[in-house]
Amino acid sequence: MSENQKEKKWKRYFLPWLYESGLPHILLLVLLLMALFSLSFFVVYNREYTMLLARLAGESVPPKYSSLPLQMKPFWTMAYWTLLPILYYAVACLLGGIPLSYASCRHASRADYTLKRLGSKWEYHRRCLFLPIAMAVVSLLMFVMLTVLYYIFYLHLTPAELLPPAAYRFR
What mean pLDDT is predicted for residues 61-77? Predict the structure, then answer.
């Protein structure tokens, strides 16, 4: 089997744009998947709200929910596991992405020789550091935006008398 046939064989197992696009598109795809995973906050919120309403109506609930106070859980206890992977991704972009970027530039493309001959001595470092730092910044911005958005939903979907005392109210 020739090299071209092997390449075509592997291409059919992957999305073509993902196979040919390279690292930036893969990193953005992973970040998009994490944002979609963070939508599970609404599943957690719905479960907690439904159990709280069932307790208020006097229906039987699982023992896990029967000992809780008659108010919603604080926001961070519900949003913790849905938003935390985005922060881990930012750290992974910095701790893992920077060495991988330098290794890729040094060993895979051998662009380090060309970049070191440029006028600025920082050009090599600037090009190797841009993508990991940019992805970390984008993921941190996404974390902040989703946290604010989910907190606004939490405050506006929950009746005021069921909010915990520490919750800031916009009303």
Answer: 82
